[in-house]
Specification:
Layout lengths: L4 H4 L4 H8 L3 H19 L10 H14 L3 H8 L3 H18 L14 E10 L6 H7 E2 L4 E11 L5 E8 L4 H8 L8 E3 L28 H24 L3 H4 L6 H20 L1
Parallel strand pairs: 1-5
Antiparallel strand pairs: 1-3, 2-3, 3-4
């Protein structure tokens, strides 16, 4: 049985979002963003397309949300495997073009805290032996891509997304991707970012206890406060991973991972405005 937009459009808003992964309002906005390019592609005539623009976008989001193979995705939408891939690729290219600028490092606000966190997504073991070690995460015990997200605490928007190999330490990713930023910015990070004050003097990380230096009550209160603020960015990472393409082992080429993750992060930012 084919999955078509006309079958889900009558769903209540909550079920619609659970099915598609984004709110109905954002889905409708994206349809109108893609429509001119879709109509331009078909205005010269030829065979009538199997999918309309709504179903084309729905198929792309279904691929992100449920991460089926393109063979199975094609069966769900009445296409063969190659056409399913071709239309998803078309949608991604148009979305990437339309959404450029939604995530902008210039949205960093010196009057607000910036929340930074790194998450990892499992990938297939690289075929090239020489780079397998670079992507191997000792923490996860598997090959991964690390994603660093910086979020503005005031408006909850993602302002920066950076990627690196699974073997790279979180703090090294941070140092490599924040060069040139004003040292007055205030970052809130986890305990793995010890030394951040050498780069951003107003930043804060939880204090660590040691055998000879147990935490005081004031230290514990401060750690609790930092954690209560930072939980926002951890929730964002959880929301992004409702798309199974990022919570399961990624099967495609690594370069496609970057663009797809940025598309989903852009969806998150746009949801804040809808």
């Amino acid at each position: 049985m084919y999955m078509k937009y006309k079958k889900i459009v009558k769903m209540k808003d909550g079920r619609f979002k659970r099915t598609v992964g984004i709110p109905r309002e954002l889905f409708e906005i994206l349809v109108e963003v893609l429509r001119p390019s879709y109509e331009e592609r078909h205005k010269l005539g030829g065979r009538k397309p199997t999918l309309n623009i709504e179903d084309t976008l729905l198929m792309t989001l279904t691929y992100y949300r449920d991460y089926p193979t393109f063979f199975k995705l094609g069966m769900m939408f009445g296409l063969d495997e190659s056409n399913a891939y071709r239309w998803v690729k078309w949608s991604e290219d148009k979305l990437k073009e339309a959404l450029s600028g939604v995530i902008d490092i210039r949205d960093l606000d010196e009057n607000s805290e910036q929340l930074v966190d790194v998450t990892e997504c499992a990938i297939q073991r690289p075929k090239v032996y020489d780079i397998q070690k670079e992507y191997y995460s000792g923490k996860k015990k598997k090959h991964t891509i690390k994603i660093q997200i910086i979020m503005n605490e005031k408006n909850k928007k993602i302002v920066s997304v950076c990627f690196d190999k699974g073997s790279v330490h979180d703090f090294n990713i941070f140092k490599n991707t924040t060069k040139g930023l004003p040292d007055t910015l205030k970052f809130l990070a986890d305990s793995g970012y010890q030394g951040i004050l050498d780069y951003f003097k107003n930043s804060m990380t939880p204090k660590k206890k040691s055998k000879n230096n147990p935490l005081t009550d004031e230290d514990k209160e401060l750690n609790t406060l930092i954690s209560s603020i930072r939980i926002s960015v951890e929730h964002v990472n959880s929301q992004l991973k409702i798309f199974r393409i990022f919570s399961e082992r990624y099967r495609s080429r690594i370069n496609t991972f970057y663009s797809r993750f940025l598309i989903i992060c852009s969806f998150y930012n746009l949801c804040l405005d809808t």
